[in-house]
Specification:
By secondary structure, the chain is an alpha+beta fold. The protein is built from eight helices and 16 strands. Its main location: membrane.
Length: 299
Amino acid sequence: MTIHKEGYTSLALSILFIFVLNALIQFYMPQAHTLKWIIYIFSFLFFLVILQFFRSPFFDISTDETTVLCPADGKVVVIEETEETEFLKDKRIQLSVFMSPVNVHVNRNPIAGVVSYFKYHKGKYLVAWHPKSSTENERTTIVIQNSEGVSVLFRQIAGAMARRIVWYVKEGDIVEQGQQFGFIKFGSRVDVFLPLGSNVLVNIGDVVKGGRTVLAELPSALTDVTRNEPAAKAVPIESLSTPTEAPVTDAEPMNVKNVENQEDLPLVIDHPKAKEPEKPAKKPAAKKPGATKTKDKKE
């Protein structure tokens, strides 16, 4: 467990505030022992809240290109089909995670790939669970496309207390799954927009952990077996009609002259090449010019 780099300034200011407050109480009200103990307890609790808010725990991250990791600690508050209108402009499954002030506020990449889109939006500071906070609050929009061409869009959304969103990515960056991409201070929300057909593995109200909880399986994971099967080749109709017979050659129609096989003639005639027996009738055709001359002489 360490302190996140975004908390160094806040912790320093908190310590300074606590020191000044206690010094003033000690200097101006040295006999107010009850008040001093109240201030001591308040100072200690205040410091613990700031300290735990900026904590950054260490843990092993299991990566899988077919799954979507939770981008932040918190509670699942939305799972619904909606229209994503900013970049993807198609129907998606929206999954939202609300981060309370006591949660770890480190944000992590849900998938690995290339950052294909990034934009920061100035906006309002509605409470993070408000339906319009996803489109009207201060926020960032990030899209990562994995090696299979599947895109996942997600947003950091500032809440009523959170007045600063931090991000560490830009368009064109190659990122790893579970790697830190940003930080939001003092209560916020993260929306993830999954492709239709994704297998969602959490329910509304579930407590999830950033970088550890698997939110869903991407559609490519569900259809991977089907996609890898080779397509069946089309079988010619001719081969299906006579699967066991040898192909008929040009010499076969010559067997029609055999008197013993005259009973088989109807079968041969049905074949497209059965017209070949007419060839012997062409031989006397060469004598027609002579016959014509004989007729001319008689005339």
